[in-house]
């Protein structure tokens, strides 16, 4: 079922730079009964030789994550800026990526309250969850522990979550949608209503979500070899002109498209937070 409720609402992109053998990223879809709220589970693991230090640099999605790291569980709201996670020695970070809007029923207040924030999980049993995740083995076991905890706290159904999911699904997959005005026309919703809906359920504006997904796509295409001129890439991604694309890409990624492409070709660390 490929709709906004069950279909993909977060891109597969977001890890910046050339592929790095120093870490591994695994993903697992949510179980069917939670798939309306949870996009997927993920696990980053690494085992570096003594003295080696690496960094994973990410361009965040418009999603809230439940994260287990260093024996603790935290809730990470949507981050607007890229960030780097330093790697050394051996370790892992496990996360539950909620769909855009999917964490709101658990939170019960505007998700924008968590934007740019990471806070310790405040729900009852958080310490028990942390201990159980610490003792779990592979990604399947980790996901099973997390999902059982979420099932015990499953909120009442909220039809707005499904509507938000359908809108975000369209933003991600429909390349003809390049402006918020096109979104409002497609779904028959007023611009101010859409803004309020996204602040409450997603945590960031619809314009930010649309722009972020296009930048994810741009970074992935450039890393693979863009093919064509920057002006052509800009038009295909919905930018008014090449300078606007280069400006937005450089601000988000920390390098111009040309510099990013060159560092990806060279297999060097492309960006830093």
Q: What's the level 1 CATH class? A: Mainly Alpha
CATH superfamily: Homeodomain-like
Instruction: Give the oligomeric state.
Output: single chain
Number of domains: 1
Gyration radius, to the nearest Å? Answer: 19 Å
Report the strand count: 8
N→C terminal distance = 37 Å
Short description:
This protein is of the alpha+beta class. The protein is 40% helix and 19% strand.
Verbal overview:
There is one protein chain. This protein has a six-stranded antiparallel sheet with strand order 1-2-7-4-5-8, covered by helices on one side. A two-stranded antiparallel ribbon has the order 3-6. It is an alpha+beta fold and 273 residues long. Helix 7 crosses helix 10 and helix 8 packs across helix 9. It has one domain: Homeodomain-like (Arc Repressor Mutant, subunit A). Keywords: DNA-binding, Transcription, Transcription regulation. GO terms for molecular function: DNA-binding transcription factor activity; sequence-specific DNA binding.
């Amino acid at each position: 079922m490929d709709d906004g409720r069950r279909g993909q609402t977060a891109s597969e992109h977001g890890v910046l730079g050339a592929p790095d053998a120093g870490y591994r990223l695994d993903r697992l879809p949510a179980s069917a009964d939670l798939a309306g709220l949870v996009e997927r589970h993920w696990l980053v693991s690494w085992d570096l030789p003594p003295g080696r230090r690496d960094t994973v640099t990410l361009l965040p999605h418009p999603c809230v994550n439940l994260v287990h790291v260093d024996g603790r569980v935290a809730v990470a709201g949507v981050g607007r800026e890229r960030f780097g996670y330093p790697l050394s020695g051996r370790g892992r970070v496990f996360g539950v990526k909620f769909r855009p809007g999917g964490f709101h029923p658990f939170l019960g207040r505007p998700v924008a309250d968590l934007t740019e924030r990471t806070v310790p999980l405040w729900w009852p049993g958080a310490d028990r969850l942390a201990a159980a995740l610490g003792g779990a083995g592979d990604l399947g076991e980790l996901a099973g522990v997390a999902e059982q905890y979420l099932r015990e706290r499953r909120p009442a159904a909220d039809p707005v979550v499904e509507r938000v999911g359908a809108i975000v699904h369209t933003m991600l997959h429909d390349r003809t949608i390049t402006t918020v005005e096109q979104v409002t026309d497609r779904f028959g919703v007023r611009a101010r209503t859409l803004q309020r809906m996204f602040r409450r359920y997603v945590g960031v504006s619809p314009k930010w979500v649309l722009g972020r997904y296009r930048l994810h796509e741009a970074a992935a295409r450039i890393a693979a070899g863009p093919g064509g001129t920057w002006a052509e890439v800009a038009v295909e991604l919905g930018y008014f002109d090449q300078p606007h694309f280069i400006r937005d890409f450089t601000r988000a990624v920390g390098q111009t498209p040309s510099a990013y492409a060159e560092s990806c070709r060279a297999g060097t660390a492309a960006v830093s937070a």
